[in-house]
């Protein structure tokens, strides 16, 4: 215990603040840079890309909406909105889940498959040049562990890092 | 050189992909969580918070607009938009730079100072609970180095990491 007034917040120390400021800058600038690349080359934002990529990697190129929302890191309401837009563009369609008609699946269309196949190489190249090639191999493990800890702090249902 | 077809992208390996997927999730979810806290408690988004906080830490509580844009990690056009909104709410005002009237300064008002003093403790508490307290001390140094490398990859004008 220290002598801090109980209503004082526990301010960040110099080391914490330096990391937080640099990380904040990454969180603001990197999604903007990746979105710009995707918009320029494919007319998609990053969330839309994650939705199409997630479907393309799934058996039958289909996923239950609630699963797709988790995979694309968004809420179900945000996903519904985006899925409607992607459906209007012909990249996917919605249909009742054959196992349980109360649920809805999103299914990638052939046009959606063509779109993601055309878009992925450019996006991976951007991710590689802005992130992957900038890091040393051991920094991937550090970044994974740090990311899992933050995800766990935001949502304890996300598996505890270091326990797997 | 490997035997990859020249038009094949250099896909991510398993280790790179695991780190990238977890980090992508953080980049999507953490700003949303912090924005939600700021909106709920202060009616500000994170960019607006960074603008007010940046001014509050500057001599005379004032900064040239171009400096403030760098500090808040935004473009000058985005900053101009946000500064107009904050000015309408009475938290800052714009005035010509006294050294060179071609430039504009943003100046924190007394209301803006009161606002940031009231807002900072809750925001720091959120940053601490979602990020700082989730990490081990050595992970701050890892996160700083990783962040600086990514920032440098996006903008080589940002000092080369590890060189300072």
UniProtKB/TrEMBL annotation, chains A, B:
<dbReference type="GO" id="GO:0003700">
    <property type="term" value="F:DNA-binding transcription factor activity"/>
</dbReference>
<dbReference type="GO" id="GO:0006950">
    <property type="term" value="P:response to stress"/>
</dbReference>
<dbReference type="InterPro" id="IPR036390">
    <property type="entry name" value="WH_DNA-bd_sf"/>
</dbReference>
<dbReference type="Pfam" id="PF12802">
    <property type="entry name" value="MarR_2"/>
</dbReference>
<dbReference type="InterPro" id="IPR036388">
    <property type="entry name" value="WH-like_DNA-bd_sf"/>
</dbReference>
<dbReference type="InterPro" id="IPR039422">
    <property type="entry name" value="MarR/SlyA-like"/>
</dbReference>
<dbReference type="InterPro" id="IPR000835">
    <property type="entry name" value="HTH_MarR-typ"/>
</dbReference>
<feature type="domain" description="HTH marR-type">
    <location>
        <begin position="20"/>
        <end position="152"/>
    </location>
</feature>
<protein>
    <submittedName>
        <fullName>MarR family transcriptional regulator</fullName>
    </submittedName>
</protein>
